[in-house]
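Appendix B. Raw example, untouched.
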Amino acid sequence: MKVAVVGAGVVGLSTSAALLERGVDVTCFERSATVMNERSSGSSRIFRLAHGTPEMVALAATARTGFGRWERAAGLPMIATSGCVVSGPKSRTWAAAMSQAGEPGELVDAASGRLRLPARVLPSEALVDPSGGIIDVDAVRAHLTAATSGSVVHEPVYALEDGATGAVAWTPSGRAAFDVVLVAAGASTSSLASQVGLYTPSALVHAVRFGFPAPDCARWQCWIDTPADGLGSYQHRSGPGTWSIGAHLDPAVIAWEVGREAATVAHERAVTAYVREHLAVEPRVDAQCRRATTRSEERR
């Protein structure tokens, strides 16, 4: 089996590493000079088992087992288990999904003593996921870079086509035939997939996280807040004394067409206002802690 993976982000690299472990002939194409270079900046992400369906919870548990294998292979931790809290109307549904999947999770109230959050007023009810925590993205990148050494080619794939027995990828070096091509190319995925008749959601939006000074944040849990009214947010410690916050805004305000600068301004205004009203965090954005990224979503 000869496989091409387009894109050396975390999905492309982890796929390549898994295939290489199984003895597959893998070529991973990356258009930039550095792997995982076009991800959003910052070396932390939220990990959680808490999701909305039992199937997603089970997949997250499988992912945690995979992280454990990576940690043992690399000899270093990749997830700091601080716990994760989900508040808002989704908390009961997600708690039920965790229960059905057989994973630990508990609904608690504000008086339980189980919530360690920077909120001025704690949620009246929330789901505590004790297995949640913070992913060390730099550690993941170091491990996957070593695991895929020799298989990454730093060239863009600018066209795909069906082949006689598989698929063909076109790069600046020319035509290359493969049994299978897997596309994990971020914002370029939709345009490449459409060339071989595959539909993927193609509407892009800008998303930005901001870091705020917070000396006490080491003891706080990651937090996904999904209120029925008001701003939905996702929050976690992103470094010593820094609490990072992203928000869910109206897609029309952060659509790709409005431009990164306008979307960033909209995010910053919304998040800073949220911090000032709801959090015991200094409402001052750290200029070094803006985490810019893009998401691909299907508009309905």
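End of appendix B.
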